[in-house]
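Hi! If you just cloned this repository, the fastest way to understand the data is to look at a raw example. We've pasted two of them here, unedited. The first protein comes first, obviously.
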Amino acid sequence: MRITEAAKRLGMSPRMLRYREALGLLPPVREQGAHRRFGPDDLSAVAHGVELEKRLDVSPAELAFALRVLTEPAVAAAVRDLGVRIGRIQAPRRALDFEKEKALRLLRSADGPSRG
């Protein structure tokens, strides 16, 4: 079905459906250069996205950005770095720090009271 009929079935305007497509919230077009045709799976995917937006109280743009974070490693790294800088994410401990702490614990236990 064409976009007008798909939008009607989804309870939104064709413009809103095109906006979601521009954000990357629709399945890809199967044939390059062809006009988009919506099948049952496409409608189901869009409806699921709309349901997520309502349940999580986010906009289509916010949902699209979340997908970018999940699919683009550079974006994920940049967001993680921001989270660490503002204290929302704990900085990852480096393996060397872990080994240093382990060695210090062992030294402390070796220096403990002697048995005798």
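Ok, and the second one:
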Amino acid sequence: MKTIIKTDKAPAPIGPYNQAVLVGDTLYTSGQIAINPKTSEIELDSIEHETELVMNNLKAVLEAANMTFENVIKSSIFVSDMHNFSKVNAVYGTFFNDENAPARETVEVANLPKFVNVEISMIAIK
């Protein structure tokens, strides 16, 4: 059985999907982009700010499922320009401790929704 996870502390979906789905003890988050959940506006001030907003949106979704970044076992990062990898990685890394960091892939893509520069999704377990 699946449970839909919703929170107003992260952006509402912009299509036919949910912020996350919990199946048993496994949480699958949808990709988050740099939408400010308070204003519903995209914030592209810098790649660092964008990444921090994405991670904070994911944090809100995890918390809605009674989880934290400690529960994350896999992250998928999509960037529009691999030259931004080190900046994205630096911000992303502040949300994890190295000993318990999840598995991850980072992929450069041609475009992302709303033409943002980074999108991240996660899988977490209780």
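That's it. A detail worth noticing about the second one: The chain has one domain: 2-121.
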